[in-house]
Every structure is written in structure tokens, then in C-alpha cells.
């Protein structure tokens, strides 16, 4: 499938990039997208929640009164969970929420998300940007021309470019990544996906499943 290459002003350059059919013509798998997004969000959770048990709270370990003969219930120490300030029973402990997802499932999810974007005409290929110095205003102007009426974008580079990264990092409506860091959540979260020409051509350099890795 041919996709036109535009310049930084959003104007067609007369060139195009061939996106391989073995990647962009598959039937999208919604469940794989769901699992990949779920895993990504789960991995963002810190999981540092914790409560203190009776062994960890401050307080005397002395038995409050003798076991029998008081007419009251038997009691241990003041750190008993029944008392205010006592330890917590079965409280949360630090743990991770991330879960394993097979590589083929993650690859299929990314490919499926790309297919949806292409069907909706939300993939833009722009000629490679060369910035001599970081300039947010210049990058923002180009970004507005490239994404049109869409306000949330994902800008994908073939490799890290410090000037482009520094120019884009203060724009809350855009995220700039390299192709190797592309993930399903970022693809689905963006309204339009912008590839540089070199990044888009990399889909033709590796087998289908590995291209979206």
C-alpha cells in the first residue's frame, strides 16, 4: 500500500512509501490490543501499597491482663488488631501488577493498532526532519500542519534525535518515540500517528512480525 510523503508544511512531496501488505492488510485482533493495553497500564502501577501488621506497629508486647479471672475477654498486647493503633489484618503488601504477554501477541496487537490507524487515514509520513538546534515553536508549527484537526499525536523516529526530542518534549499533546519503542498503548492513545520517511521505510527491511517489535 502506497502512502504519500509530505513535507513539514503538510504538502505532498511527490514521493511515496510502500507499506508492506503482510503487515498492513491483516485482519486486526481486538482482543490482542486489549491485552497489550491492559499489560502496559498494569506495568505503570507502582504497587507500593502496604499496611503494618501487629509485629510492625509501635507498642508494648506485654499482655494487658491475666488470661482468666477478670470477667472480661482474654487479651494479648496493645498491638492487637482490635485496638485503635493496632496492626492490620490481611492488609495489602507491595507487589507488581504486570503480567507476562507472549511476544507474538504483543506484535499482533501493535500491527492491529497500525491497521486501524491506516484504515482511518490517521497515518502520516513526513520527510525526515533535520533540526540544527532544539526549537519547540518550529516543531509545533510543523506538527499542527501534519496532524490537521487531530490534537493528539505520536511522532515516530527511526532512531533517537536529540534536537527533535528536545523540541517536542514540552508539547503535552504529542509524544515522540523511536520505532523500536513503539507500543500498542501509544498507538491507540494517539489520534494520528506520524512516521518520518526513514522510520516508515524500516517496515520493508524486516519480516512482518518483527517490524512492529
Task: Describe what you observe in this structure.
The protein has 213 residues and is α/β, with parallel strands linked by helices. Helices cover 33% and strands 15% of the residues. It has helices at 21-24, 30-44, 103-119, 136-147, 162-168, 184-189, 197-201, 208-211; strands spanning 2-6, 12-18, 123-126, 153-157, 174-178, 192-196. Helix 2 packs across helix 3 (103-119) and helix 4 crosses helix 5 (162-168). The longest helix has 17 residues, at 103-119. The two termini are 20 Å apart. Residues 208-213 have low confidence and may be disordered.
- Straight-line distance between termini: 20 Å
- Biggest sheet features: 6 strands, mixed
The total of beta strands comes to 6
Low-confidence stretches: 208-213
Helix content: 25-40%
Q: CATH fold name of the largest domain, please?
A: Ribosomal Protein L4, Chain: A
Tags for this entry?
213 residues, alpha/beta, Ribosomal Protein L4, Chain: A, 2 domains, six-stranded mixed sheet, 8 helices, 33% helix, elongated, disordered C terminus
Provide a quick synopsis of the model:
With 213 residues, the chain is an alpha/beta fold. The chain contains 8 helices and 6 strands, in the order ββαααβαβαβαβαα.
Per-chain topology:
Layout: E1 2-6, E2 12-18, H1 21-24, H2 30-44, H3 103-119, E3 123-126, H4 136-147, E4 153-157, H5 162-168, E5 174-178, H6 184-189, E6 192-196, H7 197-201, H8 208-211
Parallel strand pairs: 1-3, 3-6, 4-5, 4-6
Antiparallel strand pairs: 1-2
Amino acid at each position: 500500500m502506497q502512502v504519500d510523503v509530505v513535507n513539514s508544511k503538510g504538502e505532498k512531496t511527490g514521493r511515496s512509501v510502500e507499506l508492506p501488505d503482510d503487515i498492513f492488510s491483516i485482519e486486526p485482533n481486538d482482543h490482542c490490543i486489549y491485552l497489550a493495553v491492559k499489560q502496559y497500564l498494569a506495568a505503570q502501577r507502582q504497587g507500593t501499597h502496604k499496611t503494618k501488621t501487629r509485629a510492625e506497629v509501635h507498642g508494648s508486647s506485654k499482655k494487658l491482663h491475666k488470661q482468666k479471672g477478670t470477667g472480661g475477654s482474654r487479651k494479648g498486647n496493645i498491638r492487637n488488631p482490635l485496638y485503635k493503633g493496632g496492626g492490620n489484618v490481611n492488609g495489602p503488601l507491595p507487589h507488581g501488577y504486570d503480567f507476562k504477554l507472549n511476544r507474538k501477541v504483543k506484535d499482533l496487537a501493535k500491527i492491529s493498532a497500525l491497521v486501524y490507524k491506516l484504515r482511518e487515514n490517521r497515518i502520516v509520513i513526513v520527510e525526515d526532519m533535520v533540526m540544527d538546534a532544539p526549537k519547540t515553536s518550529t516543531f509545533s508549527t510543523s506538527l499542527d500542519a501534519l496532524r490537521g484537526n487531530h490534537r493528539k499525536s505520536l511522532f515516530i523516529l527511526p532512531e533517537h534525535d536529540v534536537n527533535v526530542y528536545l523540541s517536542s518534549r514540552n508539547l503535552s499533546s504529542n509524544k515522540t518515540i523511536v520505532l523500536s519503542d513503539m507500543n500498542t498503548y501509544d498507538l491507540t492513545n494517539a489520534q494520528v500517528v506520524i512516521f518520518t520517511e526513514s522510520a516508515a521505510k524500516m517496515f520493508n527491511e524486516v519480516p512482518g512480525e518483527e517490524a512492529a517489535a
